[in-house]
Amino acid sequence: MRNVMKAATLESKFPLLSVEEGCIISKDADITVAYHVELPELFTLTQAEYEAVHSAWAKAVKVLPAYSIVHKQDFFIEESYKPDICRDDLSFLSRSFERHFNERPYLRHDCYLFLTKTTKERSRTMSNFNALTRGFIIPKEMQDRETATRFLEACSQFERIINDSGFVRISRLSDIDITGTDKCAGIIEKYFSLSQEDTTCLQDITLEPGEMRIGDNFLCLHTLSDPEDLPSSVATDSRYERLSTDRSDCRLSFAAPIGVLLTCNHIVNQYLFIDDSAENLRKFEQTARNMHSLSRYSRSNQINREWIEEYLNEAHSKGLTSIRAHCNVMAWSDDSEKLKRVKNDVGSQLAFMEAKPRHNTVDLPTLFWAAIPGNAGDFPAEESFYTFIEQALCLFVEETSGKDSLSPFGIRMVDRLTGKPIHLDISDLPMKTGVITNRNKFILGPSGSGKSFFTNHMVRQYYEQGTHVLLVDTGNSYQGLCNLINARTHGEDGIYFTYEEDNPIAFNPFFVEDGVFDIEKKESIKTLILTLWKRDDEPPTRAEEVALSNAVNLFLEKIRADRSVVPSFNTFYEFIRDEYLEILKLKRTREKDFDVFNFLNVLEPYYRGGEYDFLLNSDRQLDLLNKRFIVFELDNIKDNKVLFPIVTIIIME
User: Fold this and answer.
1) I need a labelling partner for 135 at 20 to 30 A (CA). Which of 78, 263, 297, 326 fits?
2) Which residues partner with 137 through β-bridges?
3) Could you give the angle at the alpha carbon of 495 between the alpha carbons of 493 and 499, nearest 5°?
4) Dihedral, CA atoms, 462, 465, 466, 468, nearest 10 degrees?
5) Cα–Cα distance measured from residue 639 to residue 627, given in angstroms and rounded to the nearest whole number
6) β-strands 629-633, 495-497: how paired?
7) Domain ranges for the chain
8) pTM of the model
9) Which of these, 10, 76, 118, lies nearest to 369 by C-alpha position?
10) What would the pLDDT profile of 61-77 be if each residue is shown by its tens digit?
């Protein structure tokens, strides 16, 4: 028996006609401009900044002409972290860090924005008369050149307003970004494959009653399309209780529970339908009068009239624009049993927003088809609800997951939600963007909270990127890292200073490897000797400062001229005692101006045979200015009034 049933392919129902000059043209003559959206990272915005972002969206939407559609589409795709451990410049610790997070699951977030110009007739399209159900597609109304030009100008204004906000950045997609190439998938192919990878192999789509499949994936859909399903109130942002305290708030957008906080494969579609606001309000006026005349027959009519009256009062008193809106969450899984858990997760997150989760099985194919990039005009009108621009924008997902910093300098951290490693610059990039005004860091936490662990992690990576690291520590927290660097550099770096009875801490402030004493080096030596000579409450006179400066300069010139002189505090002391004393006599320097005998007497404990002769006469010829990793362990000398000030001056140098 011959099959006489009429059959059609999805290819014949495909609603898009062409892509020209960065615009998607549908077979109903709708024009769509596509953008890629860069959202701020989660946990980086305050309540005031969320309100600023919301205000920017509202200003941008208001420049669009009537019968425009704003379609924001957020992809959240599960992926596994793939480390790059084959690089030659990776150290053992860096490679171990990358291996630890191998195949760590995380959500990849990609956000797109589609601005569509449709017609009045198309804006009233119902689910029983769209591209999937019609046998032919012939537009009843065409966009003329002037209408299209005005729409494209409005899109340019929209883009400028959003980018000027400083928080969200949108960039227009080109023809290749939309359609793709032979080797690179465009956004339309990515949507049909439920992926953001460059796959050009499409999968079969199955539309069955109560079930939709794309390849091996089973889809489920939750919608917010009825006023009864909506939260009792909406806001630009909400408090994230898990990371908030009594004294501080951690803020996320109001729609974050169905965004970055929903840990499954899903797409969030948010629609704004910009109709003729005046016409909408006239319809509500007529409906309110009808409800009033029928209120005696039903109390529900009276209640509905009151709600409509309140809506109209709000619109007229505050000058709000009446629009239609819709939001849906499309999730999927390749396992029918796992899909049940996914449905529960989506429903619970919607309930967390105080919305009524409605699992929609009937309209899934229609809403999937309407969410094709550039096909928002096919959206069924009965699935939308009337509201205002400001309230509808609260359903926008306003943040994305952690992203790598553009700066090549930084440290490897992990995303707070998923644990995915990210490259983070906490020094240079925040300075350039004006987030911070200096590079100081303050790490606060109780004992055992991981302060030293984080600092080890940070300074190790800073050192590997060529940074000079100097640590002042009590507790031997960095001895292991210092020994590792010392062993890797064969003793050339990784200098660890600590005080022990059999190996006391020792320096040689008069030694430099290149023999060049710059101004900073000279000043640090003068400051050191003044600290040894004078008490805190005994400032030196001007004559004493000049005499000491001359003594230091003459001794440094002697070191440069005579290589046989060993630079140390012992030779400096002997120079003052034997040579500089004679120079002062020739200059007839008075004792009250500079008492050289008092000077030698005070500094004698640091000379050969004195109590602290080890301190400034180290035979380890170290120039600390050329060492890139130095640790000062002060646990044993922090209470010593003699050693502690001297070590502090060396650290300042």
Assistant:
1) 326
2) none
3) 170
4) 0
5) 27
6) parallel
7) 19-278+306-395, 418-652
8) 0.80
9) 10
10) 999 999 999 999 999 99
